[in-house]
What does this fold into?
Amino acid sequence: MNKFRIICRFSAFFVIALCLSGCLSVGPDYEPVDAKTPDFWGQELMQDFQSGTNANMQSWWTIFNDEILSDLILTSSTNNPDLMIAAERIVEAAALRGIAKSLWFPQVSGDGIATINESAISLLPGGDTKSTQYSIGGSMGWELDVWGRVRRTVEASDASMQATVEDYRDTMVMLYAEIAYQYIQVRALQSRIALAKESIVLQSDTFNLTKDRNTAGLAPDLDVYQAKMNLAQTEATIPPLRILVARAIHRLSVLSGKNPSALVEHLQIAKENIPYIPIVPAEITVGLPADLLRQRPDVRSAERRLAAQHAMIGAKKAELYPTFTLPGTFALQGYDIGDISDSGMAYSFGPAFRWNLFNGGRIRSMVVAEESKTKQASINYERVVLKALEDVENAMVSIREERLHIVALNDAVVASRKSVELVKDLYRSGLTDFQNVLTTERSYMFQQDKLAEAEGAVAGYAVQLYKALGGGWSGEEVNNELSEKLNKKEKDLITERVTEDRKDSE
It folds into this structure.
């Protein structure tokens, strides 16, 4: 009969606990921030770009049609240390979510103890002053989430985990853009070296010409030394360029998770080949400014951190109210291990509460602190959105102006090449002095070098544009990478926002 009463009381308390735990959640509910973005990019900017959905956003580097670049990005997606660290941070965030979620459930523990007692006066029949007492049992504690403290904490953990996922995607965006940029730098520098070598051949012919004319008494020694100086200056430009090539290749190797020199041979250009600088398509499609809110991982991460911080206001406010718990203990006791049975049973069970009636304003100050943190997170979100808009417009302007720069440099190179041919013919005929030859050859080399540099720059600006647009992730890579380390609920949290955003964009 006593056992039946115990079961009934426990069942009654259990039902009450379930009812109370679903009552309410104090604190403000989170509402997504309506970020202010312009409806369209500037009309002047859009003259050189297409408006609409960019089908290449997830794998934007394919616009360059460069297999080596695509292979480098594929390799880095599995071997890059920064990406691995970002992935493990998702696992950590999922574990922290599990810790917060565990507060929803009763905390049960088992314990046992063997106590030896000895006193000057016999307490047991037979006059023995030493006794041994055994006890085995357990204890339970269950916080009833009446005011939603646990629910708000889990809500914050969910949003924090989603923010960590966005940080992983942002690492991908940064990584792929850095690889593409460094690869373009390698090709642009290699092109500049090849053009410098062409200039060396041209200036060597001029040097030999001055020596022949000097031997024939048709040119002074000054022409010979000036030709030698011009040739040596051009030769001196190559070693610094080779240093930059080596550094860029070493950077690419490390980004790919390899030793610095691992890609040196792979990225070398055969002597008979002209280095190829990746070409930017004539038309690049950009979406609307509002698309940045759905596409850029750093913007998405800032919004999730704002949501997480918003939930912490309620978690702290809940501490202003009483905390209700259901504690309980149960033990079987005896003076011998064989005597332990329900006849020596001891238990305690019943509701309890604790209320911080006075704490010098500590809890209210904590609430104010959380509200301030939320305001900071909101301002930071607006800052990140503005920075995203700035990055896109800077890249668009740079591409437009650099293309105009290239057109002018092309004309300059054509004119310089023709000038070199003409001035050499005049010099051979004795109709002009050698100073004109020097000036024209220097100008030709300078214009060629600047053209190669500009072609690399416009490709680099295209990389910056796709980076600013948040290109390089699809929404499935996290679950694919961490499928064995996350449970179904955690995977659903990762994908639900991507699914919602795609519906909104349709």
